[in-house]
Amino acid sequence: METDLVLADGRTLHVYDTGSGTPVFWHHGTPQIGAVPAPLLALSGIRWLSYDRPGYGGSTAQPGRAIGSAADDVAAIADSLGVSSFSVLGHSGGANHALACAALLPDRVPRCVTVGAMAPFEPSDLDWWAGMVAPEELRASVVGREALTAQLTSGLFDANSFTPADHAATAVAGTWVDLGRNADLATAKGLDGMIDDDLAYVADWGFKVGDIGAPVLLLHGVQDRVIPFSHAEWLARHLPSATLRPSSSDGHISALDRILDVVEFLHG
Predict the structure, then answer these.
(1) 94 near 51, Cβ under 8 Å?
(2) Confidence check: pLDDT of 98 > 80
(3) Could you tell me the pTM of the whole model?
(4) Whether residue 155 has pLDDT greater than 90
(5) Residue 77: C-alpha distances to residues 71, 82, 102, 242 (Å)
(6) At what angle are helices 192-201 and 145-153 packed, to 10 degrees?
(7) What mean pLDDT is reported for the chain?
(8) d(CA 101, CA 96)
């Protein structure tokens, strides 16, 4: 089921709801829309809830938004659907939006799963950039909106950002082929969502990782060239109740396969 929810501030969020089972919010990466990938839909007993983040798909842009603003949007969606509590699952930048919900909605989020999450920008105890094969997009984000827009509109993409396993996962016959289609849909109407995501990643997140009390399961490919594994190690050190589950042969996309191994965690 897809619906549009009009918020009190007049913005619209495009919402997805599979309708029955244990409620879990899916937080998509950058650039994506909220449509839940087929491998997740195939998992039994889960009610998938999701939405296009502001500026993507059918959701109104929200310039200047922080990652923490996702908690307000998710709470509004859950209220509209009569859902009191829910787990959260996010991939890539969506993983950090999932962490925001765990931090800012502690009474509603009993558990959180991240895949390929990044650490907050340039903490004192992490070389944030080390291991990123193509950091130009995020480096432009540090400079500002104009520089980022110019970088994104250049159309340049370094295919080496993805490992062979990642490329196989998103190929025509790949398990996560949906992500390629969803990325095209995410940018079909412009780059607002992507720009606001990238700017938020290198700004204050609007919450502290150390404030998350719920159990967090960190899934991360050791071969990840987009968000290096060192980010997951940093999060594991700073989250009060974290379990780090590395996958030695996976990159940024293929690590999504590990979700299929942790369904019991999502069900609680």
Answers:
(1) no
(2) yes
(3) 0.97
(4) no
(5) 10, 9, 15, 27
(6) 130
(7) 97
(8) 9
Q: What is the arithmetic mean of pLDDT over 247-253?
A: 97
For residue 159, pLDDT over 90 is answered with no
User: Are the C-beta atoms of residues 37 and 25 closer than 8 Å to each other?
Assistant: no
Q: Is 90 exceeded by the pLDDT of residue 158?
A: no
* Cis-peptide into 120, omega within 30 deg: no
Q: What 3 state SS string does the chain have?
A: CEEEEECCCCCEEEEEECCCCEEEEEECCCCCCCCCCHHHHCCCCEEEEEECCCCCCCCCCCCCCCCCHHHHHHHHHHHHHCCCCCEEEEECHHHHHHHHHHHHCCCCCCCEEEECCCCCCCCCCCCCCCCCCCCHHHHHHHHCHHHHHHHHHCCCCCHHHCCHHHHHHCCCCCCCCHHHHHHHHHCCCCCHHHHHHHHHHCCCCCCCHHHCCCCEEEEEECCCCCCCHHHHHHHHHHCCCEEEEEECCCCCCHHHHHHHHCHHHHHC
pLDDT at 33: 98
Q: Which two tokens stand for residue 110?
A: 């009993």
Structure tokens at 1: 């089921």
Tell me the per-residue pLDDT of 30-44, one tens digit each, with 9 for 90 and over: 999 999 999 999 999
Angle 27-202-248 from CA coordinates, rounded to 5°: 60
Cα–Cα distance between 223 and 148 in angstroms, integer?
A: 26
Q: Which residue has the tokens 């960190």?
A: 218
Rg (CA), the chain: 17
